[in-house]
Structure formats: structure tokens, C-alpha cells
Amino acid sequence: MFTRFAARCAVPIPYLSTILLLLALLVPGSAHAAKLVGVVSERSAATLAAGAHRYLDRHPAHEVVLRTRAQLADLTDAQVTRLWRDADAVFMAGVFGDAAPRLRRLMRQTPPPDGAPVLIVSSTRSVVRMSRFEGERPLIGLSGDDLEVISADPSADADPKAFMEKLAAEHPEQSEWLRGRAYWRGRGAENAANLIAWLLGRGGADVTADPPRPAAPLRYYRDGQVVSAGGLDLSEGDSAVAVLAYDDGDQAGKRALLDSLCSAVEDQGPACFAVLARWGEASKQAVQRLERVTAPAELGAVISLQNFVVGGSDGRKAVTERLKGLDVPVLKGIRLTDRTRQEWRVSADGLPQDSIHYRVGMPELQGVSQPLVLAAAEPEHTDPRTGLRFATTRPVDREVAAMAERAANWIALRSKPNAEKRVAVLYYNHPPGRHNIGADNLDVPRSLMRILRNLKRAGYTTGPLPESHQALLDRMQDRGVNLPENRAELARIHGKVPTLSAADYRGWFETLPRAIRAEMTDGPLGYLHETLREAEEAGRPDLGRGLLARMHGDLRHLLEGADHPATERARDLLDQLRAEYEALLAEKVDASWEQAQKLVAGLRDTGIEGLKGWGEGPGRVMVHDGDMLLPGLRFGNIWIGPQPPRGWEVNEELLHANLAVPPPHQYLGYYHWLKDEFGADALVHLGRHSTYEFLPRRRVGLTDTDYSRLIAGTLPGVYPYIVDGVGEGLQAKRRGLAVMVDHLTPPLSTTPLYDELLQLRGLVESFESAEGQGNTPARGRALDRIRDKIAELNMVSELESELRAEHGNPGLSLDEVGGDLLVHEVGHHLTEMQEDFMPRGLHVFGADWSAEERRMMLKSMAGAGEIRDEWRQELRRSPEREMEALLAGLDGEFVAPGKGNDPIRTPEVLPTGRNFFGLNGNLLPSRVGWEMGVRMAENARAKGSGAPQGSEAVVLWASDTVRDEGAMVAFGMDMLGVKPVWNSRGIVEGIERQSLEKGRYRRDVMFTTSGLFRDLYGQLNGWLDKSVRLALDGASQTIREKYPELTPALEAALNPLGELRNSGTESLKRNLVAAHWVADARRAVESGAEPAAAGQDAIYRIYGDAPGSYGAGVNRMAERSGSWKKRGQIADAYMHRMGHVYGAKAGGDSAHEGLTRNLGRVQRTYLGRASNLYGLLDNNDAFDYLGGLSMAVEKVSGTAPDNRIIDHSDPDNPQMQPLQSALLQELRGRYLNPAWLKGQMAHGYSGARTMGSKFMEYLWGWQVTNPGIINDWVWGEVKSVYIDDKHDLQLDEFLAEGNRAHVRTNMLAIMNVAIAKGFWDASQSTQKALARKLAEAVVANGLPGSGHTRPKHPVFDHVKARIGDGLTKALDRKLRAAGGKQPQDQGSAVRSVTEVKQAQKASEKAPSAQQKEARAPDQATAGKPASAKKPDQKNRTDAQKQTRSPDKPTRDSHIPWFLWVMGGLAGLVLIGGFANGLRSGGGNV
């Protein structure tokens, strides 16, 4: 019949069949065109897409719509719900992060159709519980533990099918969910296709699905094939590397990494195989069986591609114990699924911040280290059949080769005889000089001596060793110290130390990545040029736009603060350069890279510091006669030497720049020599901390254009590090690619009172003993004596600061308080001092403590409690464990992981000798940290009365964040009135706004973060940024009603909150965040700013260094005291460096105007101290960040803020003190205390260094930043104790003897600088005595090499004016010899503006003017009349005249005449620009 109908219609049968089929599909009810909607993680997208294709091939009429989390983020709520509005089934997997609360809300508000099953697996628990079958939610009543049970995976030996059937039988109500999960966990395209069929079948479609086909949870892979454990075919005697991958590692898009990595490993020599293990129980069993399956070969190393912790939370401890048993290095390889290779290389951070905790941080808990990116995503593509946008990954060949070489080098340490191994040990000498060989709380000479002797005992070839640590130190001082500014010393050691010729260095330098070479020679613009060019060559010019915008902003700001005659010309060139780059990135035909390079050269040659690089190698740093000098000592196959200097010692102008400074050529050359000439098999960096882990660029997941990575190379690195320095230690581990070996702190005890302080305590006790007897004459006399003693001790100001803070009365004086209150305050002050812990001496790496030292430390750990036996045992064996771990690392063995922290606060950090780890940021603030932070915030709010004025500023550091579990972060959040929300596992997954009750105000808080905090805890910056926005949202309805014109700006400020938005009606009087935002946004909009931009700019509150930079710059400038004349210059440097904003929508963008605006409002600042070891005067970070912040606020607002210290080293009793009280209390309790001094004296040179290069150097830092606190009496007392031996300890003789004399010289220099700059108004006799002592010390011992004793330092003019002619001449001879002749063939010969000004001032004898200038933050804030600026204006005019002087170097005669003409024209434009700028810039641009 059908055939007859076709014939009658004259239509071919095949065509008619097709037509009828189409009609059937179009007729309603003829067949059901089923639709599945899926949401999946990027990691699993390829598998689900492949399964969808198979399903659609079988059912072409059906529809499968798939999206990733990232795709959903681009859709509106309506667009998302429209996806499943008519779905027959919904599937979700891998829903975490911001997507989870949004999808949960949308599923509740607009759920899928009633009959559609919803299967959600491998996601946030609250989302998983929304799974639905036949209208029921089978997981809704399950506890977290029950959900864990049914989410378990089978062990490696279990039958997966039987395991799932058993679970279903035990949990019949969840059997449908279990079946769906079995499809998903079975992996592979076929299981995914059947999952789709099964779900649609449950939704009513007429389709069938085969049962799940679960894959074995543990398999092995070698030579491109999956094999059995017995089929690995490894040879006896071979070393093998095991690559631990996930169970889907052999699938398309992932297999290539396994093939590439094993091929590269086997090219290095060892055999290689992969273990495909499902995360959890199977991965635990995989590790437990590694040794057995590797046999008969020997396992040499493991490369883990698994994230989080191997074995899951339940198997973590078992896996860690087995890794200890395997005793091989475990390296971390990263498959970067969320960035392409080019995106990664252009990025400022390396790894996305939200992935660091699971890719790097959690693996560290098991001793997995040295993370390298091995594969990156290919460019995304959108699947036309499903709409799914995803990417596969591709190996990065260079990185794969580096990982293979690194693994092979670790294995070589296992097999190479110790007698043949070469080891390089680097010690800290930064800032450089003879006075500063050491490390944090470590006696370096003694530690080196112990290490050398232990290496010799272990069979290393050392040759004869020095007889003692003192003999070793003498040799180190002779030729193992950096003296980059002392030309005479460089000439002396030339020929005594190894050298690297210019030709050899340049030959090696040419092998470095193009961007590195360009930055080294041409500065930041060289790096920018080459990176943009690389992006263009890779076909991704779009990637360069963000880098261009960020660097242009920073460079523009640099030029705005530059005091240089070529500044205007440079601005013009910079704008031209940006326009040229934008044209290149837009692929305009008239743009050229050659023209851009000319503009780069022109900017470089203006001579403005921060724009130019180091020039051609070998440069000027540690160079003599064209040779790089490489200080150090060789003992057989062991090299010990100082880590190279950072370079700003010979170019102090760099300290004023706001950009990161690459290391100088000699820094790179030194490590090149160690690796390629000396032939080191391993590197050891001794003690906290080195500088190489803080070199510029990415935080983790480094590329070959990161200097830290370049320095580390592929050599094994072992890094002994103080156990309480875990924050900075994590940076050394991640950026330095090192295995840490933590060591003990010094012994700690409570603080004994002494001398007048002891007398004062006795007077207080006498007064208190008469309590209840009324105002007796004896009591009155005791009170009078107490007042007299307070005045005698100069304690009035610090006691008044405490009383004022406690009572909220800024004008309160001691004369106004009664006797009982006064005595109570004095007693409390002394008790706080006594309860503080004091280090007794230094630690010697690997050296046993005495019984008394152990008793002292154990008593401190126990406090009022009992000493535990395990503490005794762990403390006793710690030193031995330290040395064992170091030697184990050098033998290529596993260094077991352990927690790092303050031993008193956290005794479980013992024993030391472990590869320490810290808390991951996703757990912070913890509930414990939150409770502590809330208590501290309540205390802070109680200190004031009435409505708070202005805003608060909180300083955040990484090291204290590790110690206090995020208490200072919690403090800031609670001041904003915002609280974290934790999930059942303690992970912070959200925030919520707290209501304003009981007259509370929502305070405005800005945060300044260290570069280390940004790197380690950047996700906390995100939560803090959202906390500020959520605080603003508390008054958003009020703002809309009162200021409707600000609605667009408000929306821009609140949009990043996403699901957290919660509009409120708070008043602007109570909500200071909102009040300040309104003022700033209105001002910006009225000035013509685009509303969205104005709204964003007005809400930023988190500021820090530029990406890849570290430090606020204050400590460097304080140490280089000749680099500035007035405090305002240091405040400027702080604001230059810290003017980068971070948060949900900002990753370090230049925002200097916003920083200045926020600084102007700051009334109170807070710095937390969570360590029992570290205080305010034993590190330079405290005055760098808090002192710098205070000085910047002072400069902007005219008044220093109320600076407060929160001491929460005792978590049960946090205390808040004014900075003045805390600082001076620490000064008296520790650094003027005979008990502390005796402990340091026992360590000879290292103890002297602690006194000088730490305490006195950092006291000077506080003097500069907070001159109102460090008064004349402080310097008088310091001189009395350290120079005049007030305590009769023979301290004066101790400091003058041997190598300690260099420390004393630097101490004398600091005192003279304090006088010369007007900070210390010393008597004339004191000035003359200190000047003579410094001059005599320099004549006798030479310059130590510090920043205060550079040959051309202005302090020597001050000194020479106060000593006799004969001593002056002798001093001049020393200074001239040290100053020497600079290398003429290296870099620019142009003198900096500062040097020109200093030369102009050299003969002037006007100390009073200089003193006033130095003390003021700047002339404006000091309240000086406009005429006070005239001397500076005169200097600037004189400097310009000098740059035009005819006796400047003339251009070479071979330059063609037309270049002379062009140079002359450029010179007219530059108006006296530097000669080198005229010579090169005019010809290039």
C-alpha cells in the first residue's frame, strides 16, 4: 500500500520515508523529544560531552543541554532557570563555590518540572541534598555522616558492582541516587551516555539504559597502555618514578600528560609508570602498594598529580605514614585546567587564588612539595550539540622536562656516594656587610660548623675544616661577605674568590628566556614588551591588555612622584608607548614592535630610576675589572657562601620606586656558577630567611620567567628554617621549590625585672601591702617614691598612653589620677612586662640544649599547667632530628611533614626537623580564631566613647594568620559587623551581616596586607572585600532613597556580592562604610567619573604591594639612611608601593588615589602579635607595615593615628596596648635587660649581630616612622647600656673585640645618623664622643658595609665636623679607598638626582635645617611656611644646572652628525635631561 501510494505520487520511496519521519516528529504526541539539562565542573566536562554525543547519536530527536559552572556565571537568573524550565531530567556534578548557593536558591525558587528527576553528585552537601526522584528527596533527612557513608567508594580489591549493590540494599530509600552516582563514578563516555538515558527514562522518555559499568578504582599505566600491577615490566636495579594520577588519567585529553611525563623521566634515566587511582580509599591503597608493585626496581621518587590530600580525609594519616615508610621525595605536578598556557604565562599570580589550597596547600600536609605546572588548558571551545564550553589540557613541554630533571636529580642524591656529592650552603647576608652574617634567632657560624662536621662524618669530601666556629667566621669575614659598595675590598678579594668573566656570564645570559633578559637590561618596560610580544605571537593579543593597563598605571604613578628633569618627557613617551601597544594588540597595520622598542629605549635612557634595568651584564654590583666576584669558601666538595646582594645598595634611587626590582646580574651569575661551574648536586639555604623566594613575580605555579624559579632551577633544595616562621617558610617552600627542615626557637623564659624596675616593683608591693590602712604617712611616702621612680625611668608617657587608652580620655595625665589607680597601673605594667617571654640566646642548628635550657622552655610551655612527658621527649630529641633531616634530604630521602607554629602556643610542633606546613586559607578564620577576634574587637570598641570618628586600619600578615587561625581577619570582620559562615567541615563558605544592636556602629575598616599575606591567603582578601560590600549593603535602601542618582554606582559596588546581597535600611550615622562610600562616590560622580567606576573605586578597602612585590619599602629606606632627607620621602615610598587594591574584582590594580583617600580618614590602626618569640623590635616588618602606615596617615591627614598593638600570643588573654606602651615595654623588658644581653653575649658574633643588626637597626626604624615615641632618653639609655656598659657586663669590650667590632661600628653609625638627622638631641659632648668613636672604628676596622656607612653617606660630614683634623684625614683615606672608582663600562654613567643634591650639599654645615627636614613627614604637614621650601627649590635648580654642565661626559666622536642634531633637539625638550638620556633617547625616539 505504501509502495502504491508512493508510485501514485511519483515520489521516490526513500524521500517519502524521510518526509513521513519528519512529520511524525513534528506532530504533537507522536513521540516525546526528551530533554536533559546538566551542570558540570570544567574538570569533568569532556567526559560528559563525550557521553552526550553517544546518547544523541542513538536518540537524535532528543536534546541534551550542558553548561559548566563558569558558563552559568555569565547567565542571569532568568536565563539559568529557563534552561531547566521544560527539562525532563536534571543532572549536576561538581557544584562548589559561588555556584552552590545560587543554584540552591534558584532550584527552590523555580524548580524543574514536577516529574523530572534531579540527580546531584560530587557537590556541596546542601546542593546534593536537593536530588529528587518521583517528587521525593531521598537525601534530605540524612546526617552528614550518613551521607559520607553512601558517598564512599569501593576499595581497590572490592568488586565495584557488588559494593554498589550492597550499599543499595543497606540504603533502599537512596537506591535510585546510588544507581545514578554509580554511572557517574564509573567514569568514561559510555557510562555518561547511559546515565543520560537512565535519567531521561526516569523522566518519562521511552529509552533504556544499560547498567553502570564501574571501572576498577586502581589501575596501572605504562608505555601508553593500562596494565596489571604485574605487567609494569620494571628491571631489577633500576630506579623508578611513580606518577600518581586520578583514575581518569588515561582518558582522552588527559593521557598525553602521562605519556609526556614518563617519556621525559625515562630520558633522564629512571623508569616511569603511572598509577591510576580514584581519590580516596583507592589512592590510599595505591600508595600502600607502591613499593611492592615497583619491585624488582627501586622506587626513587613520586610525582603526585592528585589534589587535596591523597587518600581523602579518612586516609590522610595512613598515606602520610606510608610516605614516611617509602622514604622518597614526593613532588607536586599540577594540571592547570582553568588557564591556558599563555594565560598562565601572562598572569600576575600563576595559579588562580581559589585553587591554591587544594592544589598546593593541602598536599603539603602530607609532605608533597615543589609544585610545578605540567599541563595547561587548551583554548576553550563550545560543543555545538550540547552548548557545553570546555577545554582539554595539553602538556607544557618545558615544565614537564624540568619536573623530570628535578625528580632525576633527587634520585641521584640517593645513589651517588656522599664522597662525590657537591653541596652548596648559602647563608644570609642581607642587607650586606661584615656586621650582618646571620639568620633569624640562629647562631649561623656555629651552625655552619656543626653542619660541616656532620657532613664530614657522613662521608662527604670536605678536606681539612677550621678548628672552630670562630676560625670559620674569620675566613667568612675575609672572603665570604658581600661588600658591594666598597671598591677597595672588592679589589682585595679579586683573585681570592671565584670569578665569572663578563664573556662567560653573557654567554649563559643569552640562554635565559627573552622576557628575563629584556627586564634585566631594560627594566620593567623590557619585560612588558617581550611579554606582550609573546602573547601576540601565540595568537592571544587580548591577554596583554590587562598587563598593559596594570603596568602603565604603576609606571605613570612612578613618574608622577619622580623628582627628575626628564619627567614630563617620560610621561609623553609612556603615553605614546601605551598607544603603540594598544594598536599592536588591536593588530593595526601601522603599528610596529620596532617602534615600540624605540620608545622603550627612550624611556629607559631618560635615566629615571624604576624605568631602567641593570644594563648589560655583568653590571656594577660585586664587579671588579669586569669580573663578577663570587664570595665564599670551599671545603672540598662543600661550598659555603653569602646569598648575593639585591642591588639597591649601589643604586638607592630604586628604593623610591613602586615596582619590584629584579635581582642584579651578579645574583643570577652566582647561582649559575654554583650549578654549572661548581657543579652543586643540592642547595641548602640556612635559616630564615633567604631573598630568592621573595624575588619578583608570581606567587606559586611559577613559570620560567619567575626569578625564584630561575634561581632554584632543577636542583634539590633543603632549607633549615625556624619553626615559628611558618608563614614566610611556606613562601620558601612554594616559590623556592624547597624541602623545609624546621628548627627550634631559642629557649624562652618569662622576663626577669632588674635594677630600677626591680626597685619599682618593690615600691609597688610596699604600697599595696598597706592597703586598707588608710592614707598613712608611710603610704604617702611610698607613693611619692613611686612617682619619683617613674619620672626617673622616663615611664610617664607610656603609662599615660595606657591610662588614656583604657579610660578613653586622650588628655588624661598621671597628675590627675589618684594614688591607688596610679599604683595599680604601674603594677599592671610591670606584670605585663614580666609575663612576656624572652629568648635566652640563640639556637644552634642540630645542637643539644642544656638541661637548664630545656627546663626553662618546658616551664614556659606549661605556664600554670603541668609539663607533659611527651614534651620533654620531643624537645630533647629535636636537635638531633634537625641534623638527621638535613642529611636525609641530601640523601634524597623523604622529610616528614609537621605543623609549624610557636612551640609555646602549639607544643605539637615538636619535634622539629620536619617539613612544616600551615593552615589553609579556606579554613580561616576558624571558629576558634573568630571567637578570639570578636573578643579583641569588643575590647577595641570599648576603648573609645561616643560615636567613632574616621575609620580603622588593620595590618594583616601571613605569619600571624597561621599562628592565630585568622583572629586578626576576624577582628576586622567583626568591626565591620560581618560574620563568617562555615560548613560542617569547618570551611568558610560564606558571610552574613550582623544586626546593629545596643548602639553599635558599623565601622569603616581598611586593610593593609603584606605581599606574603596576598600570596598565601589571597582568598581572605576576597572575603574581606565582600565583607566591606555587605556592610555597605546594610544601608543600600537608605542610599537609594536619599541619593537616587547614586543607584548605578551602588549597583556596581554591590554586584560582586552575588547571592550574599541583603539590602538594609541602616542610617548613614550608624553605618560608617556607607557614609564614607556616599561621600566618595558623590564626589567622583560630580567630578565626571563614570558611575560604575566611581562606585567600585569608592568601596575598595584592601591595599598592598603590587603583584609579585614584597615589603612596604620603609624598612629598606630606613636601613639605607643616606637615600632620603626627610620622613615624607619614606611616607611617599610606602604609598607608592602599597597603592594596589585587592578584592573580588581587583587583583593588584594601581589605586594610589584611593589609598590616599582612605588613609586620610584613618583614626586608629591595629597590628596583631600572636608569637611568644617575636615582638616589635626584633623584626623589620613591624615598622615596615605599621610604622609605614602610621607615617603615611600622618602625611595625608597631618596627624599620626592612634596606633594600637593587640597581643594575643596567649589566646586565652588577648591584650590591647597603645604602640608607645608596647614598644617601650619591650625595649625595657628585653633589649636593655642584662638577662637578655648575657644570653646574646654567650653567642659571640651572632649575639652581637642580634643586638646591632636587629635590635638597634629596628629601633632606628621606629624612630623614623614614629618619632614621637622614641625620645632622647631612649637613645641615651641605649648608649648607656651598649656603649658605656651600664650593667657592668663588659659589653663595651665585648662589642669592640674581633669581628664584633663591625657590628659596633654600625651601631655607632646609627646613633650618629639619629643625631645628624635631628631625631636625637644629644649633648655636644655626646655628639663629639660618638663621632670620634665612629671615626676611630672605621679607621681601625674599615667600613662594615651597612646602609649607614656607605662611603658617600652624609653622616660622615657630620662626623668630620666634630673630630680633629688628624682623625678626619685618616677617615677620609678610608672613605676614598672604599668609594673607589665605579666600573665605567656598565650601564648608565648618569648620576642620580639624589647624588647631585648630596654633592651640592656636601660642604654645607647646616645641621639644624637638615634635622628639621628629617623629622617632619613633609614640609606641609609640619606646618612650615611656604618659604621653607626654597632650599629644596634651589637644590633642584642647581641640579638642573649641573646636568647641563660642560664638563659632563661628551658623546663619542664616532656618532654621526645627524644624531648629534637629533640629540640636541631632544635636549631642548628635556630641558637639561641627563647626558645618557640625551645620548640614547634622542637617537632612539
Automatic annotation (TrEMBL):
InterPro entries given in the database record: CobN/Mg_chltase
Keywords recorded for this protein, A-Z: Coiled coil, Ligase, Membrane, Transmembrane, Transmembrane helix
Residue ranges, compositional bias (Polar residues): 1383-1401
Region Disordered, annotated ranges: 1375-1453
Top-level taxonomic group: Bacteria
GO molecular function, one term: cobaltochelatase activity
Keyword Ligase recorded: yes
Ranges where the CobN/magnesium chelatase domain occurs: 182-522, 612-862, 866-1326
Entry coiled-coil feature ranges: 567-594
Record-linked CDD domains: CobN_like (cd10150)
Alphabetized PANTHER family for the sequence: AEROBIC COBALTOCHELATASE SUBUNIT COBN (PTHR44119:SF4), MAGNESIUM-CHELATASE SUBUNIT CHLH, CHLOROPLASTIC (PTHR44119)
Protein name: Cobaltochelatase subunit CobN
Record lineage: Bacteria, Pseudomonadati, Pseudomonadota, Gammaproteobacteria, Thiohalorhabdales
